[in-house]
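Record minuted for completeness.

…
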Amino acid sequence: MIIKKLAVPFINEKLLQQVEHCYIATAAISEAGFDFVRTRIPTKTKIEIITGLELPTSPAVLQRIWRNYQGRITLHIHTRNRFNANLYIFDLPYRKSVAFVGSGAFTLEGIKDNEELFYKVNDPKEIENLKSWFVGYYEFGQPLTEELIAEYEWRYPIMKQRSYAARLEREQFLDLTTPGFHWDHIKFKQQFFKKEDYLTLSSHNAPFTTPELQDARLTIQNKLIALHELITVHLQKLGFQSTSDPNADVSSTDPSHHPDHKLRSMWLTYRSTLSNPTRDQSTVLDNSANIKIVLGQKDVGVQLVIGTPLKNKDGREYFRTRMNDVEYRKELLKLLHGQGPGSWIEIACERKNIDSLQTEDALWEFTKSDQWMYFDFIVGKNYSPDAVEISNEFIARTVLKELANISLIVRAASNYL
C-alpha cells in the first residue's frame, strides 16, 4: 500500500500508541520529528535507530537521546559511506508488525510536511527481511557517545548553513523561472535599482570577475552609497550608527569576499547604538545587532541581524527566558507584525513569514529552535523589484520607515543584546 504522508497512519490509525518495539533507519533526525514520534508511543517502548550524519541532524536531539533516554532509546551512527535509507518498523501487540519503506527522513518534514512516498509492508516474511537488513547496519554502526556528539557539534553549523544556502538558491531559481515572472514585465523607469542591477547578481555571474562585471558591481555599490547619503542624517536618531567612511559600510565588489566566493547580493551595514539598560548605560552592543539593506537577485530587503555566534550566550538565554512571559511574547509578536506583509523571521537557518505566526505561542515554539552558538537571529522584510516603495521617490522614506520599525524591535530586545 502506498502512503503519501506517514503522519496519517501514525495519527488517524493511532498506530504509534500500540508500538512495543521500534526500529528506525534514517538519513537525518530533527527535534520536531523525534518529538512527534516519542510523545505518541508508550513510555516503555524501546527504540533502536541507525542514522548517518551526512544530512544535518540537530546535535540537540543527539544530546537528548544520550542524556535522557539511555536504556530506552539507542542510536548508532553509520560511518562507512553515505546513508540515505529511510525505514520504520513497528512491533505491535499479538506478535504483529508493520513497516514503512520510503523517502521521508525522521523529521517533521519527512513525516508530515514534505511530498514524500512510502510503501506500507504487512507481510511477516518481508518484515523479517527488513529487520535483518536493519540489524546488519545497526550492529556495525558506531554507538552514540559524548565525544562523538561534541565533535559533531562543530561540524553541524557548516552542514546546516550549506544545506540552507542550497535550499535558498533552489527557491531563488524557481522564483526567477516560474511562468508568472518575467523581467520584461516590470517597469524600471522610476525604480532606484534597475533590471541590470539584479541581473548582475545572478547565479551564473556570481563566481566570476570580468571588467564588465566589475563595472556593473561598482554601479550597484555607488547606488548603495547614494542611498546611504539619503538616510545618514537620520541614522543616529533611530539608534543606528555608520562609520565616517560610507565605503566601509557597503559590501565588497570582489566575489572572494563573499560566502563561497560567489557574489549574489550586495548591502549596506549599520550597527545598533542602543545601550543595555540593565548594564553600563554607555555600553554599545558590540556589533551583536546589525542592520543590513540588501539588494538580492530578485528583491530589496531590510534586515535586523542579531549575531556574533559563540559570543551572545547571555543575550540569547535572556531572550529565551523573557519568552516565557506571555505579555512579552504578545508585545514582540505585535512589533513583528507591525512590519507588514513580506516580513519574515529566521532562526537556526529556518525562515518563516511573520504572517504564518498568528499567535504568541506559535512564535514561542518557533524561537525555541534558536541556537545562539552557531547561527544569526534575523528579522527582515523584502520588496519586489517593481514595488513603488523602492522607487527613486520613495526608497529613502521606505528604508527609514523599516529602520524605525526595527529600532522598536531592538529596543524591546535591548535587555538581551
User: Anything to note?
Assistant: The CA atoms of residues 303 and 380 lie 4 Å apart. The two ends are 53 Å apart (CA to CA).
